Amino acid sequence: MSFPIxxxxxxxxxxxxxxxxEVKSTPVSDIILDDTKGNAVEEFCAIAVNNGVKTIxxxxxxxxxEQLEENLIDEANLIPENYGQPSREILAxxxxxxxxxxxxxxxxxxxxxxxxxxxxxxxxxCFTQDWFFAIPxxxxxxxxxxxxxxxxxxxxxxxxxxxxxxQEEEFIELLINDDEFQRFTATGRKYHxxxxxxxxxxxxxxxxxxxxxxxxxxxxxxxRQGALVQRENERVANALASDPIFKKCKNKTARRAYIVAxxxxxxxxxxxxxxxxxxxxLALLKCE
Length: 288
Hints:
By secondary structure, this protein is of the alpha/beta class. The chain has 14 helices and five strands. A five-stranded mixed beta sheet has the order 1-3-4-5-2. Strand 4 (111-118) and strand 5 form a beta hairpin.
């Protein structure tokens, strides 16, 4: 049968002396009656009555909220920054598509399900509007609307990607030169970077993406610090290679003690045993 009118369903249930209760969702059905019969609702109610059922349930589904949005083209995305010069024409066609979908959605429910439990099983009858299955996929519709503009759209997006990469590189350098950023823990760096991004660029970027940039910035900081330490160790090793006192030290313990005392006095920085041993090895190589 065609999609039923709600008032007709109510009248048939009333004539069958059945209570009709509306619910928000439907359980999984065990028995699904044929909805193509012209008297499908009458037959459903007759089965309920013949089995001693007093109450049947009805679930009315309207195309609204998130479900409606899923069938619409995102108009906010159809801007020159994403689609270039054709964006105005593409937007106009997308709006026509969305208006048609909204008109269908406002015409009434797209699905009505009747059901009742009987001896542990669910018996149901479901009707779905033909127009619901005919709604075109919004992504496929947008692709069809954009046909003929692919080359211009590709160029626009490539240019935007280059600008975004330049901006992200600029932001990474901004964090690298931010002394406060370096003092935070990993979690602190993430949120500090998010605040810095918002304050600097005044636009949204997901926390996940910002954290990727923050981690890259900190990795570069560590790499640069490591390179500086390596150059400093090379400088110290060169100086030790020509130091007569160092040359007189005959064992590792004596060399380490001399270097620790010398470096502590000259730089004020604490050197780990590993760093000290590396400097000794470099200096000995240079002495050869």
